[in-house]
Every structure is written in structure tokens, then in C-alpha cells.
């Protein structure tokens, strides 16, 4: 009985741990979504990330993938006549070739009906890249 409880507490403590200090030799990419939505780092250059809360990347060109989750109203056709909200998950890809050491960047995402939109911003809030939606669904 204690082992499952300890494993659960260990897993939850990883989520609550503070972010590591930013490495000045790399670029830091924070993730932002409005309350009620979840935006997590997924892959950096096609490799799974260790921490879904941010990206830290060497200078140069990189491909970042994120998972964005949000709810949409249920019902509306087919065999699903439920009024329960539906959880949507979208995978978004950002490609940018100008990441600079010591600079901070920000990825933002928001729902667009049953799809999503996303942007990569530089430190002065200029849009550097728009997200490519790889897929969205109830998976």
C-alpha cells in the first residue's frame, strides 16, 4: 500500500519542483496558455523533452513541438449527443532558425474551435514563427 502512495508523491513532486536556472549559453523558451488550458513541451528536434514546462535550446535552428489541451462543448452530431465537454489535444510544431544564446522566447497557444493556433514570440513580443498544426483530436 505504501509503495503506490510513495510513487504518486514522487511523481507529483516533480511537477512542483522549481524551474532550473537558465543557462546563459542557450536560449530559454517559456510556454504560456490561458487558465484552463494546458500547454506542454513535447519534442525538441524530434527528441522527447525531459521537462514539459519549458525548452532550453542551443543557439541556431530548432524545431519545437508542443501539446496543447483544451475543452470544447460536446454534442453536435454523430452518435455523440452528450452535453459533456470534449477534451481536445493538438500537437503544434514551431520551426525557427535564429535562436540566440541568453535570449528569452515565449510560445503561446489558444483554441480555434476544434483546432489550435500558436505563436513563437521574441523578447520584444515580435512574432518569430507561427505554429503548424500537426494533428488535433480526442486522443
Kindly provide the radius of gyration, computed on alpha-carbon positions and rounded to a whole number of angstroms.
17 Å
How is the biggest beta sheet arranged? Answer: 5 strands, mixed
The total strand number stands at 10
**β-sheet strand percentage:** over 45%
Q: Pairing-aware structural class of the strands and helices? A: mainly beta
- Backbone shape: elongated
Count up the domains.
1
- Provide the spatial order of strands within the biggest beta sheet: 4-1-7-8-9
Low-confidence segments, given as residue ranges, are 3-13
How many alpha or pi helices?
1
Helix content: 10-25%
Order of helices and strands: HEEEEEEEEEE
Distance between the termini: 31 Å
Mean pLDDT: 87
Question: What does it look like?
Answer:
This protein has one helix spanning 2-16; strands at residues 27-32, 38-44, 47-48, 54-57, 60-72, 86-99, 104-112, 115-121, 127-130, 132-137. With 139 residues, it is mainly beta. It has one domain (23-73, 83-137). Strands 4-1-7-8-9 form a 5-stranded mixed beta sheet, with no helix packed on it. The protein has a 5-stranded antiparallel beta sheet with strand order 3-2-5-6-10, with no helix packed on it. The longest helix has 15 residues, at 2-16. It is elongated, with a radius of gyration of 17 Å. The two termini are 31 Å apart. Residues 3-13 have low confidence and may be disordered.
Amino acid at each position: 500500500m505504501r509503495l503506490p502512495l510513495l510513487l504518486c508523491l514522487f511523481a507529483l513532486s516533480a511537477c512542483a519542483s522549481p524551474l532550473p536556472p537558465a543557462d546563459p549559453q542557450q536560449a530559454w523558451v517559456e510556454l504560456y496558455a490561458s487558465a484552463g488550458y494546458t500547454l506542454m513541451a513535447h519534442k525538441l528536434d524530434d527528441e522527447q523533452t525531459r521537462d514539459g514546462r519549458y525548452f532550453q535550446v542551443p543557439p541556431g535552428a530548432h524545431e519545437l513541438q508542443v501539446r496543447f489541451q483544451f475543452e470544447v462543448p460536446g454534442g453536435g452530431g454523430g452518435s455523440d449527443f452528450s452535453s459533456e465537454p470534449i477534451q481536445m489535444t493538438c500537437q503544434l510544431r514551431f520551426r525557427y532558425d535564429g535562436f540566440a544564446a541568453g535570449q528569452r522566447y515565449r510560445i503561446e497557444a489558444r483554441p480555434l474551435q476544434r483546432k489550435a493556433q500558436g505563436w513563437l514570440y521574441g523578447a520584444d513580443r515580435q512574432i518569430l514563427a507561427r505554429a503548424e498544426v500537426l494533428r488535433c483530436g480526442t486522443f
